Amino acid sequence: MKKVNFEKLQAGELVQVPRTQFAPQRYGWNGWLFSEAVVIRKARSKKNNKPVVVVEMWTPKSTNDYRTVERTFYAGHVFQTNAVEIAKKFLARDNVTTKEKFYKFIERDDVTGCDWIKLLVDKGFLF
User: Fold this and answer.
1) Tens digit of pLDDT for each residue in 7-35?
2) 65: confidence class by pLDDT, cuts 50, 70, 90
3) What is the tens place of the pLDDT at every residue in 31-54?
4) Angle 9-12-17 from CA coordinates, rounded to 5°
5) Contact predicate 91/116, CB 8 Å
6) Where are the domains of the chain?
7) Using CA atoms, how far apart are residues 127 and 121, in angstroms rounded to an integer?
8) Strand 65-74 vs strand 32-44: parallel, antiparallel, or unpaired?
9) Whole-angstrom Cα distance, residue 14 to residue 36?
10) Are 116 and 36 in contact (CB under 8 A)?
11) How far apart are CA 89 and CA 91, in angstroms?
12) pTM of the predicted model, to two decimals?
């Protein structure tokens, strides 16, 4: 994972941030779940003047129920992501080429795990 350059980071960019630590005995970022997020703004911490990034991200509320939250992360904990390319590859494999086809596609019973792609569609990174 490659950290973002705080100086070049702009509002509206797609980044990857840590969401949940599932294995605290592991070293480093191995043992964390990450989520895609959209940068809202850059700032400096009031406590220690370190660079921070405020993002909007989806977090699970319950099974298949996600909500949007605003979170603040130190700039060292914000990473670049290639989620758009991965999502395009998944969607091309299933012949999903428009927003309307995507919403019909995720209603099928055999389709799961599209919540992160739905964030990309809703925020305008796809289609």
Assistant:
1) 898 998 999 998 887 887 777 787 888 88
2) low
3) 888 888 999 999 998 889 899 999
4) 70
5) no
6) 14-77, 83-122
7) 7
8) unpaired
9) 7
10) yes
11) 6
12) 0.78
Query: Amino acid identity, residue 105?
Result: F
Which residue bears the tokens 């389709």?
Answer: 111
Helix (H) or strand (E) holding 121: helix 115-122
d(CA 79, CA 90): 22
Please choose, from the candidates 91, 97, 93, the residue with its C-alpha nearest in 3D space to the C-alpha of residue 117: 91
Tokens of 111: 């389709």
Q: Which residue has the tokens 């850059």?
A: 42
Identity of the residue numbered 107: E
Residue 61 has pLDDT above 80, yes or no: no
DSSP per residue, 77-120: G-B---HHHHHHHHHHHTT--SHHHHHHHHTSTT----HHHHHH
Measure CA 1 to chain center: 14
Structure tokens at 40: 């809202």
